[in-house]
Amino acid sequence: MSVLVVTGGASGLGRAIAAQAAAEGWTVVLVDRDADALAVAAEELGVASTAVDVTDREALGAAFASIAERLGRIGGLVNSAGLTRPGPSEGLAVDDWKLVIDVDLSGTFYSCQAAFDHLAESASIVNIASIGSTRGLPERVAYSAAKAGVVGLTRALAAEWAPLGIRVNAVGPSWVDTPLVRDLIASGTIDEQQMLDKVPLGRLCTPEDVASSVLFLLGSDKAGYVTGQTLYVDGGYVWAG
Ligand SMILES: NC(=O)c1ccc[n+]([C@@H]2O[C@H](COP(=O)([O-])OP(=O)(O)OC[C@H]3O[C@@H](n4cnc5c(N)ncnc54)[C@H](O)[C@@H]3O)[C@@H](O)[C@H]2O)c1
């Protein structure tokens, strides 16, 4: 199996995707800006890592070049680095708006762009979107805008890079049991029971649910004719009305 780079790999979904990918034989490299958490995750998973902030296009370019030089061309890229700054839209600080757009949207694009020169033939990219890509999430305006943008850039890159054999898809999870969602519950931004009432399958998504879908899209054996799509891993939430 080839090299898989996972941004946001130090925590939550990125880490779960990395664990499942490593178990399936990918040579995984974690990328994250949190050097301490990254070192712990890399040690525990037994994979390589490199500390990079995805908003730094130049640093990403150097990181992908170095990964390709050490381990070979990159067969898979998962963009899971992300954050949110919830709160009433009318009072959202400009710095918070910029941060969320920079990390969740621009960071995803910069990572795809920086990886491009180092991708293997038939490489596959999976961007982590959200139910906020297609549904209105109150008090998460920057996050919703960024994640809608992730779906847009996924479609555009899929169309542009398909002739080169590169597939680009997205996975849109609903509320996953990760530190990000636990923080939103703790801060009162979302109510756990109200959230579960909206999910037809009646439970929170697990990181492993997301990882399985990401691994499906990464693999050209099963998803070789799938590109430009966003797969909502949401227990039925998005289309439940
Ligand atoms: N948890 C959920 O319920 C949920 C639902 C839908 C989508 N998502 C998306 O999944 C992705 C991962 O979320 P998570 O729940 O695992 O969160 P998390 O906070 O557990 O992990 C996010 C990781 O991204 C890293 N990161 C943040 N900013 C970065 C930057 N500028 N450069 C490099 N790394 C950076 C963090 O250090 C962290 O390790 C995010 O894009 C999030 O929007 C999460």
TrEMBL record:
Listed InterPro entries: KR_dom (IPR057326), NAD(P)-bd_dom_sf (IPR036291), Sc_DH/Rdtase_CS (IPR020904), SDR_fam (IPR002347)
CDD domains the record matches: SDR_c (cd05233)
Domain Ketoreductase: residue ranges: 2-178
Cited SMART domains: PKS_KR
UniProt-listed Pfam families: adh_short_C2
A molecular function (GO) term: oxidoreductase activity, acting on the CH-OH group of donors, NAD or NADP as acceptor
GO BP: fatty acid elongation
Keywords, sorted A to Z: Oxidoreductase
Similarity comment: Belongs to the short-chain dehydrogenases/reductases (SDR) family.
Name this polypeptide is given: SDR family oxidoreductase
Naturally occurring in which organism (per UniProt): Georgenia ruanii
